[in-house]
Amino acid sequence: MSFEILKPYLDNSINKKKIFIKTFGCQMNEYDSNRIYDTVKKIGYEKTDKYENANCYLLNTCHIRDKAKEKVYHEIGRVKKIFRSKLKPLVIVAGCVAQAEHEEMLKREPYIDLVLGPQAYHKINDTILEHQNKKKREEETEFDAFAKFDYLSKIKNQSNKISSFLTIQEGCDKFCNFCVVPFTRGPEYSRPFDQILEEAKQLVLSGSKEITLLGQNVNAYDFEGSRLSDLILELEKITGLKRIRYTTSHPRDMTDDLIDVYKKSKKLMPLIHLPVQSGSDKVLELMNRKHTIKTYIQIYYRLKKINPKLAFSSDFIIAYPGEDEKDFKDTLKLIDEIRFINSFSFIFSPRPGTVASNLLTIDRNKSLDRLKVVQKKLVHNQLKVNKSIENKTIKVLVENRIKDKSKLFGRSEYMTSVLFDGADNLIGKIVNVKIKNSNQNTLFGYVIDSTNEKVA
Ligand code: SAM
Ligand code: SF4
Ligand code: F3S
């Protein structure tokens, strides 16, 4: 083929606008990053997984812990180096650090072109085009969840994954004393019921078999009186959707109707991620958590009574200001009682602007020692649970083949990763896998047969 014939195609591929997104933080940021890809397609950007090929580099940031802001500037420094001998890409900082810092970022780092808060993604195309025309550096950090989701609902969610995220609720009104989320994501907002159903149907049509409903307070979902429980039962009716999950919940919003859904639903998975943060009522009060250990344990036993196979996972903040040895022991006691699987634990990190930011922190070494003890206990439980599955057969939703192509990857009903041998035509199916070995995070086995039933 001559060069003349190929030229238009070559030019086209060279001129193609490519966007690379680096995502930090929670699943809601992952959902947002995917929706940003869907959105910027409209103005000609295509996704690239190779950051060095990008002419738009977007950092979707998280502000929840540690030196979040410094990490962003460090990352920008890295991008500068990568592109030193190339054309500078359009650099966009989005997400929760962008919301918290906004114009400060543009002042401090001239390499950043645009700053977009998490509720302003519906404006991304206009903001980019405006920038390209006028070369104006801008920040968009208004809270406008309604406009964001109204806009996004008109753009197809192209997750194209077997397991997809679907944000149904944004923001938080609870103001735990340690947390930045109410400041970075704004007030609680629930998306319209029908808008969510539409997006779910579309996801299933494009191949999703599992949907995880997302929200910073997902079980606070309330759209004109319709609750998370109603949504789950409605989603249940979608043919082709096999599994439903939701995260992250607050113990205060574990209402009777939601607990009852575990009696009714055939598709709701048996792992409940319900962050408790501490096992001490005194610390929960200091944190302004608005729930007690007694109510937490009651929720646990009510759910266990409905289905003994239900399991809990949690988040813990260790060494919160004011946590003494007794409080810490109460957390260990709670872990012994609930036997959480797959939990997250972190040392308290003071966040700017929060009530707890000015409190006296606990000695670093003591905090680290407590964290180690908690993590040892959590890992011990996790290993024990995984070991108990060896030689048993479990149901796995097959998601893909791992990078080196050697094994299929899927997840158990409890979200544990499972690796096993099998053919590509099992992807998207629920299969019976006999587990032979396990470690802390993964189960290893082989396929017995494929099925569509649910056991737990
Ligand atoms: N809404 C959820 C809840 O109320 O449980 C939590 C959402 S938050 C995005 C995720 C987790 O980050 C929290 O459960 C908490 O354990 C952790 N986290 C939040 N702020 C923190 C801080 N200042 N220091 C350490 N961990 C923190
Ligand atoms: Fe943060 Fe969750 Fe508390 Fe809201 S309820 S302030 S998101 S920890
Ligand atoms: Fe981080 Fe924002 Fe999520 S602070 S955890 S990305 S809501």
Topology, element by element:
Layout lengths: L2 H13 L1 E7 L3 H14 L4 E3 L8 E6 L6 H15 L7 E6 H6 L1 H6 L5 E3 L7 H11 L3 E3 L4 H8 L10 E5 L1 E2 L10 H4 L4 E2 L2 H13 L4 E5 L7 E2 L2 E2 H8 L7 E5 L8 H9 L6 E3 L7 H7 L5 H14 L4 E3 L1 E4 L6 H14 L5 E4 L16 H26 L3 E9 L6 E4 L5 E5 L8 E9 L3 E10 L5
Parallel strand pairs: 1-2, 1-3, 3-4, 4-5, 5-6, 7-10, 10-13, 14-15, 16-17, 20-22
Antiparallel strand pairs: 8-9, 11-12, 18-19, 18-21, 19-20, 21-22
Q: Give the overall pLDDT as a whole number.
A: 92
Query: How much of the sequence is in beta strands?
Result: 15-25%
CATH class of the largest domain: Alpha Beta
Q: What ligand species are in this complex? A: S-adenosylmethionine, iron/sulfur cluster, FE3-S4 cluster
**Span between N and C termini?**
59 Å
Determine the CATH topology of the largest domain. pyruvate-formate lyase- activating enzyme
Number of helices: 15
The helical percent reads: 25-40%
Structural shape: globular
Task: Output the structural class.
Answer: alpha/beta
Radius of gyration based on Cα positions: 23 Å
State the CATH superfamily name of the largest domain. tm_1862 like domain
- Can you tell me the CATH architecture of the largest domain? Alpha-Beta Horseshoe
Oligomer: single chain
- Tell me the major beta sheet: 6 strands, parallel
DSSP, total strands = 22
Q: Give the uncertain stretches in residue-range form.
A: 1-14, 452-456
Number of domains: 3
